[in-house]
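Why run this: before we spend reagent on co-expression, it is cheaper to look at a predicted model of the complex and decide which construct boundaries make sense. The entries below are exactly what would go into the expression plan.
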Amino acid sequence: VNVCAPSEVVAPQAFSLSRFMAPPDARQRRTLAVGLIGPGRVGSALLRQLRTAQPRLAREAGLQLKLCGVADSRRMWLDHDDPELNTRSHGAQTWRPGDLDAFAAHVQRAGERHALLVDCSASDAVAAHYPRWLAAGVHVVTPNKLAASGPLERWHAIRQACAGGARYRYEATVCAGLPVVQTLRDLLDTGDELHSVHGMFSGTLAWLCNRHDGQQPFSALVREAHALGYTEPDPREDLSGLDVARKLVILAREAGWPLSLEQVEVESLVPPGLAGLPVEEFMQRLDQLDAPMAAKLAEAHTRGGVLRHVAKLDHHGRASVRLQVLPAAHAFAHSRLTDNVVQFTTRRYCDNPLQVQGPGAGPEVTAAGVFADLLRIAESLGVQA
Amino acid sequence: VNVCAPSEVVAPQAFSLSRFMAPPDARQRRTLAVGLIGPGRVGSALLRQLRTAQPRLAREAGLQLKLCGVADSRRMWLDHDDPELNTRSHGAQTWRPGDLDAFAAHVQRAGERHALLVDCSASDAVAAHYPRWLAAGVHVVTPNKLAASGPLERWHAIRQACAGGARYRYEATVCAGLPVVQTLRDLLDTGDELHSVHGMFSGTLAWLCNRHDGQQPFSALVREAHALGYTEPDPREDLSGLDVARKLVILAREAGWPLSLEQVEVESLVPPGLAGLPVEEFMQRLDQLDAPMAAKLAEAHTRGGVLRHVAKLDHHGRASVRLQVLPAAHAFAHSRLTDNVVQFTTRRYCDNPLQVQGPGAGPEVTAAGVFADLLRIAESLGVQA
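The model came back. Tokens follow.
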């Protein structure tokens, strides 16, 4: 229910798409062809959001978004801005065996139009295509962390491939729709200097820490989070801290620090003996987490603080991800539910950091982060020099 | 001192201006002519930032920033990308009597190049020129709140004047360099719906509320803030709440709600009897604020809460600015120093809001907010269709 815009207050004619300020005249019109790879939860949410926005973007921003195709790991559907693309993409319509380069070529149609690929897969194989696509002038937008946090050589190749003007954006890789990567860029591009990053980048671990008060064993909370869908199907992906470490790598590189995932000091909450087990067996032995977690909580209580899962990039370039005891007055002690928090301390923001906080996961907000990246690229197609 | 990028960690060749990803090839190069109106504290900080960034922007982004002139309320200096522009702008060099339209024409040079005017004045007379400049294709970027929170007719005229492609940006009008206006735009442009805005938009009042614990009379704190330069020269500009109300109007309009300043319910902390006095006399009678403020603080203590200066835009479109008693567990209760806070509650961010927090005033961060707007416009000049 939309409760935000009651008719007695809002004059609809006053609304116009803010980014573009006013309905554009004819010479401002442009077309952007979009192909989606990975029609999972985030990808489907994005298709819905794009589909809903299409008429408004055309009317108010002069932007024709052409949704040209969907590809999953095995098949692709090459539609020509089919209005049913969204709902039928998993239906019985014609598909072809997946071929990502053919898919890109279809979206780009031999350079006749601006083309953009959205990678909503979590696949390293898809990420491996980025340099080629970008070099061919196809923009890439993605919530997939594997390229931006993967091997440095590929990361450099991707950036080099942008020299011709194609854009690679990945805001949604860190805290979904929260403005984190763009905020860091704006700081640096305007001449600020990053001193440190402190954050809570895992909604799952934030929730577990918020709830872990000693009333229930930690394993019971993990089971509850698992049942609520707050964890990955294998909760070790959250508990290992690896996903958080990837986000730290992405922010470090954004600041020009060539950090690799292996250089991040990660304290896993998963006991070594449980790391290699099948997931069902891991879930059965979950109570092995209880004693160490109870000890950490007791330590926090002794010191009058709280336990939080903190990612840190310090001014020496050292990166770490670990459970930490924080004073009760610390900003991270007051976070709620599954909130993510990011604090940038910089030359300009040195007494108090610049802080962004809020829900940092979920298909709708992640898709919105991708969509915002797409719009920022669309903006840059707007004005002819 | 730059402590963030020690040489043993950072490979300088890895750094490239993030926004533009890689050094652009020749066809990506472009020139943006910039004129500054209002070389005060923010304007001077901006000139320094632009001057420092010029070589990097040219090298890494292919962007030639030409600083073409400075105008204050009476005079203008028309330099042709004079490298000494910054330091000499108040010196003995040649100036002419101020003529803002001639100044704009000089920067634009009859449409030969992309042109952008930065208005760092706090002048309504300057704001009155925006529609004309924008209609002529000159971009406008400003921290001046008077246009975006001023008469609705002018605001509409400004937006209409953007139909030809000129851009009007004003991120720094709300919380200086914090990403507030752009964040709201991204939410709305991707199809989210604003339910409410809660914020603390005055660093001065945040500081006063943080310090106001009953140990000292409120007037002593106002005197201290005044001496520290935390207040305007006339502290009533802060205490009246009018400046905060303007920020609320700007955000409401960004969301498409045609709010006027007169519609905001503002609770002034200035007793009516002191509103019309000369500032020296007001400062002498400052202790008249003590009894009402002590009473409010006592009420907060009785209710176990804290006193905060809160701006609110609710889902009925009602806007208010007032001192409020908040529970001790409220996010605003934990703010520090002169922090600003903004919370957007939307359809997608409904359980927990999206929150941005940090220092929201000061010449350097305000100038950086203006600079980020300028870069975003420069980006949109980048790729030829």
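Residues 1-19, 86-92 of chain B have pLDDT under 50 and may be disordered. The two ends of chain B are 43 Å apart (CA to CA). Bring this page to Monday's planning discussion.
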